[in-house]
Each structure stands twice: as C-alpha cells, then as structure tokens.
Amino acid sequence: MTNFFSSNFKLGILGGGQLGKMMLYDTRKYDIQTYVLDPSQDAPCKIACDHFQQGNLMDYETVYNFGKKVDVLTFEIETVNLEALVQLEKEGKKVYPSSKTLEKIQNKGEQKLFYEENKIPTAAFTRFSNKAHLTEGITNNRIKLPFVWKSTQGGYDGKGVSIIRSGADLAKLPDTECIAEHLVDFKNELAVIVVRNPSGEIKTYPVVEMEFHPEANQVEYVICPARIDSKIAQKAVIIAEKVSKAFEHVGVLAVEMFQTQEDDILVNEVAPRPHNSGHYSIEASYTNQFEQHIRAILDLPLGATESKVGGIMVNLVGKEGHTGDVIYKNIEEIMKMKGVTPHIYGKKQTRPYRKMGHVTIIHENIDEARKIAEKVKNTIQVIS
Amino acid sequence: MTNFFSSNFKLGILGGGQLGKMMLYDTRKYDIQTYVLDPSQDAPCKIACDHFQQGNLMDYETVYNFGKKVDVLTFEIETVNLEALVQLEKEGKKVYPSSKTLEKIQNKGEQKLFYEENKIPTAAFTRFSNKAHLTEGITNNRIKLPFVWKSTQGGYDGKGVSIIRSGADLAKLPDTECIAEHLVDFKNELAVIVVRNPSGEIKTYPVVEMEFHPEANQVEYVICPARIDSKIAQKAVIIAEKVSKAFEHVGVLAVEMFQTQEDDILVNEVAPRPHNSGHYSIEASYTNQFEQHIRAILDLPLGATESKVGGIMVNLVGKEGHTGDVIYKNIEEIMKMKGVTPHIYGKKQTRPYRKMGHVTIIHENIDEARKIAEKVKNTIQVIS
C-alpha cells in the first residue's frame, strides 16, 4: 500500500480550472502533494496546489515532462496531449483515466462508435470528415433537418454543439470533422456519476435531472435526486455502470443521458472527470465527487454515494452586457436563505455567459430546495 | 456592502495551524483573499492562503505590521499579541473577535471573573498569582484537595490543566499564575458552538457531547447531537448564547460546559474561534463552523446550523512510542466504512499524542455512527 498522506507521493493534475480547484480542497484534506499544469498564470488552481506550472496542455513535451515528475497523473479537462499520456504509460506511469479511455472519449465520433460497438443505447448518428461532406450528406438525403451537429473535437460547456434546423443554421457552422445526430424528443435530460477504481470497485450516485427554462431552453437547475419514476432511474444507473465498465474507466465519469418520450434511456455523452452535474455532491452527498475521484485514481476504497439531503445546483454565469471586474450582486441576500452555498471559482473578470461559479441549495425536502433555488436564481447577478 | 468575493479585499489570519487550514477551504470556496501569519515555515496554512508570512504571533511589531496590510483581522489561536490588536482597532482596523473579547478570554483568571460578574454559572475557584501563593492557599485551607489547577496563560489542548489530588501532584506544577477550581462531579461534558456577527445576529449549533474512555478518562468521541435530555440541551444552548452576548463575541465561539450530577450546567471554558468540538460540522452540518466564522467576521448573514445527519469526531493523535515521519496505518481500512472521512492536518512528523488529524463519522442514525466510530478508533494508528 502506497503511503499517500503527508508523504512524498506526488499527484499530477492536467488543467487548473475550477474542477481542479475543487479537487484541491480534498487533496488538502488528505494532505496529498499535488502538481498542477495549466496554460494560465491566473488559473484557479494556482494556490492550494503544492507546485504550479504554467504550460500548454496540448504540447507533447510539456505534458510528458510534467508527467515524469509525478507518481499518478490525472486531468480535469479532456483536451490534453494524448500521445504524451501514451508514452508515460509505456514507461510505467499511472495515468487515470487511461490514455486508452481518453482516446475513445476525446473524439465524439469515436465515442459514438464505441457506444454502438458496446450495444450502449445512443441516438442514431452519421459521421462527416468536414463541412463539405456534411452538406453533401444533406443533399443526398443521408441526413435530414433538423439534427444535432457536434464537432468531434474540443467541445466544452455546450460549445461545439448546435441544433441545425435550416440552411441558415448550417451556414454558420465551422469547417470541422463532425457528427450529425438524430434530434431526440426527450422528456428529461438525466445524468449519473459513476466512479470506478483500478481494482474494479464501482459505485454510482443517484440519478440527477437537468431542469430546463421553459422558454430559453437552457439548463437552469441540476436536481438530485431526479424527480422521475424509480424504474427509469434504475435503468439509467444500469446503463451508466455499463458505460463505465465498457470504457474501463478509472475515476469519476459523468454519463449524460436522455429519457425519451417512450421512456427509453439514450446515452448522450460522457465526461471522464468530475462534472457540473455532480457539484451538488459537495454539500449533499456522503462523499463528494472530487474526493471520490481522488479515492478512485489512487485505488483507495470508494466512499458512500448516498445523499444526506436533497441538492440542487444553479450555475453562476456572467450576465449579458457585463464585461470586467466581477461583482456578485445580492450574494448576501442568497446567503440568508437556508442551505444555500455559493461557490466562487476565482475568475476576476466576468463576461457574458462565462461560468463564474455555482450555487448549491440543500434541503431535506427537495421541493423546498427547488423553491429556494428559484429565489436564488432570481436574486443573484454576476455583473461588472 | 463591501465586495469580498474575487476582489481586492484582504482577510488576515493570525496563526497558520490546522484550524486556519480548514478555514482556508472556505475562503477558497468564496475566493476571499487571505494573508496568514505563523511562526513556522511548515505551517499547514502555508499553501492555500494567498500570502503567507513567517513571524512571531506574540511580537507587537510583527502582528501590528501584519494587521496593517489587511482589511479584517481574525485569529485561529488565542496566544497572539493583544496590544497590537488594541492599536490596530484604535486606527480603525476591524479585528474579530475584538481585543476586548480576547483580553477577557486569554487569561483564565479573568475569564472566570467575567463569568461571575455576568452571572454565568461556573465552578467555584480561587486565583493565585504564583505557586507559593497556591501552596499557601492549601496550607491555610483556602482551598482543599482535590482541585483542578489551571495555568491562567497559554493553556492549549489540555496543556496547562491538571487535577491535583496529592502533594506529589502539586510538586510537579510549574510556577505560574493559576486558578484552583472546584473539581466538578459531572455526568457529561458538553459543548455548544455559538456564532455571532457584528450586526448582532446569533445562532447556535446543536449541543455536542464528549464521550470519555471509561478507564483512560480521555475524550474519545465528540458526538452531535448529544445523547441527553432535550431540556438539558435547551439549558446549555441558552447559557452558551448568554456567554457569546456577554463577551460581545464576533465569530465562532466554542462554549465547553459540564452537566453536573444535579443536571446543572456549568461553563468550563470557551475558545473564541473554530474548535475541535465543531469539526463534525464539516460533514454533518448545513454550514460548517469555518464557513460560519468567515460569514460572521465579515458581517455576512449567518448560515443554517442544523445537522444534515448525525456526526461523530475522533481525534487522530500520534501513538505512544512513535516519533518521526508519519504513517497513517490502516487508513484505507477506515475509508471502506460508510460515512468516514479522515482529515490529515499536514504535519509530516508524528510524536506521542501530537494532534495529527481527525476522523468524522456521519450517519443518519447516531447509534450506527457510534458503532462505526469505535471501529475507526480501533483500526487506524498514527505511527512512524
């Protein structure tokens, strides 16, 4: 058994954003020594890690040399140099999730093929190597409007995803490799956080539900537990576990899914790391997703995934029309409400729709939490 | 309203030990800029604060100059230079808890007199300016054996406190100002965390109970909620609130109390800061004591103090006979148990009885938590 605690053991994290920052609360709690690599000198992880290094996550040499310094390497963002991970593994370095898993997930075309090969239910799709091929596919009736366009590379936080309903929508797309996916008519968008360690121990968190704004069609609330039939929830959990096992994933995996009008569950996509849909766990769960990720990649026993109370997460994004030094207007008003915890990611500058933080609302009664969440949403403003 | 979040606001913390370290999880969560002063370059707070300074907490110039740099000053240890705080306040600096409050608490003789003056129930006592006076007091029958001896200055973690039953016990005492206190025959040792902000908002946490080892007479478990009659609990809460108000305390105040055989509540002593008896709150409470302290000293609204689940805290202290690089033996065994979270303070070297960390056990059922806590206690060992 390696001695991780207050020892010379070194954990490396590729990426120094808010996910890394929240992971560092738990490496600190365990006094595990950390090294973080991020391109920005203003990265939220710069403090609280033991050693911060500025560098390009897509550069082979940078990632390889960083990886050589540590005992176990993980990442908090998928867009990292894969070849460096492959080489590090060849040299015996522990990289979790593995390069093999990441390779299948980094490219959304490969990810979809993987679901097909492994009989994991997912929306029908066609892959196109560039925009000309995509246009040809429409002309030839291989695909029909409307459809969901996804760039196969580099998508993040809804970027690289569009619903294409018209020629005008199509005209706006960049010229990249992409997939065109059947537009699913869904009742609910759900997610399950699965955690798995190298020994094969596996646990799932309760199903969460993304509640959309009725007009804006934007996710407003992530709600745990999802207000759905327990049989549907069970189905979602079984599929999520299957996905984690098929990927031989190690660490926290967020599996995003659709519940169709026919109550089928279709896997939309996965994130091989702690995820926005699991942020509620910091306050609501026996073990939060960040601690759980650390337990998993160090092959420690996994923690309990049950909830202590109901939890709802609201993202804090920069308000339209505001760019500059951030002000969290009315934050003291939401702090008066029961069970409300703001999380500020530490970005000094706001801009429209920039993810600046999130707020968790917990309550023994999820319907009460939902009411408070709405008040939170209507009260706090991220302005400049 | 001051803008504390991702701003130029500066919070100063005197002391950089484990209490400060745990406070920094929450300053990080809120992205509040922190300055920490501690004598040791190996202080647990050295990472995760924005600016660390090595320096003597009892030195006037050091504390004064440090305080000048920040907007609000607090402390995580009571043994700090009081005159520097007085001067900083005179110059308009916000110091919480205030120098006036700290002055009454720093000297245990003053603290006891304060309870008498404010009609707060406490054990009878006599104050002695040195050891010769104390011996004289015994000879003159002003006090009788057995009694509790407490050094008026610098006591910490049970140091500076002895039960004097014989002349031999007396002989071992150092020559300091002290009090001799009536030895209370208590049923239970209880504590209540009270939090109060400068606006006068006040909240209390549920009463916790210290469970003692039947033979060793050492606190083994801090249990929340205390397994006592609700009327006794109510009495303890009322007294704790009275203490906080009498001190005009700002921040978290831990009030330690005895429940006598006659079910009277006597105040033993207070700690004007987050305290060991409130560590359970990190996992078990709606708002943990560290976040609560920060809310209070910044005059933000206080958070809910209710528990989400039952919580028990076990201290992790260095095993007898072990000095050197620390190893947390069987830590992976306790991590298998439901609702168990180890907290490692980050001290690289263990020595007998050194406080190295703590473990929290949470469970919806406090009796289940108690069973798991005993397994934890019997499993993990802090060795070298």
UniProtKB/TrEMBL annotation, chains A, B:
Any one GO MF annotation of this record: 5-(carboxyamino)imidazole ribonucleotide synthase activity
ATP-grasp domain span: 112-298
UniProt protein name: N5-carboxyaminoimidazole ribonucleotide synthase
Native organism taxonomy: Bacteria, Pseudomonadati, Bacteroidota, Flavobacteriia, Flavobacteriales
Alphabetized NCBIfam families for the sequence: PRK06019.1-5, purK
Top-level division of the source organism's lineage: Bacteria
Record flagged with keyword ATP-binding: yes
Similarity-based family: Belongs to the PurK/PurT family.
Pfam families associated with the record: ATP-grasp, PurK_C, RS_preATP-grasp-like
Catalytic class of the enzyme: ligase
Residues involved in ATP binding: K108, K150, E181, H182, L183, V184, E189, N268, E269
InterPro entries (UniProt xref): ATP-grasp, ATP-grasp_carboxylate-amine, ATP_grasp_subdomain_1, PreATP-grasp_dom_sf, PurK, PurK_C, PurT/PurK_preATP-grasp, Rudment_hybrid_motif
Pathway entry: Purine metabolism; IMP biosynthesis via de novo pathway; 5-amino-1-(5-phospho-D-ribosyl)imidazole-4-carboxylate from 5-amino-1-(5-phospho-D-ribosyl)imidazole (N5-CAIR route): step 1/2
HAMAP family attached to this UniProt entry: PurK
Subunit and partners: Homodimer.
One Gene Ontology cellular component: cytosol
Native species: Aquimarina atlantica
Keyword annotations: ATP-binding, Decarboxylase, Ligase, Lyase, Nucleotide-binding, Purine biosynthesis
Catalytic activities: 5-amino-1-(5-phospho-beta-D-ribosyl)imidazole + hydrogencarbonate + ATP = 5-carboxyamino-1-(5-phospho-D-ribosyl)imidazole + ADP + phosphate + 2 H(+)
E.C. no: 6.3.4.18
GO biological process, any: 'de novo' IMP biosynthetic process
Protein role: Catalyzes the ATP-dependent conversion of 5-aminoimidazole ribonucleotide (AIR) and HCO(3)- to N5-carboxyaminoimidazole ribonucleotide (N5-CAIR).
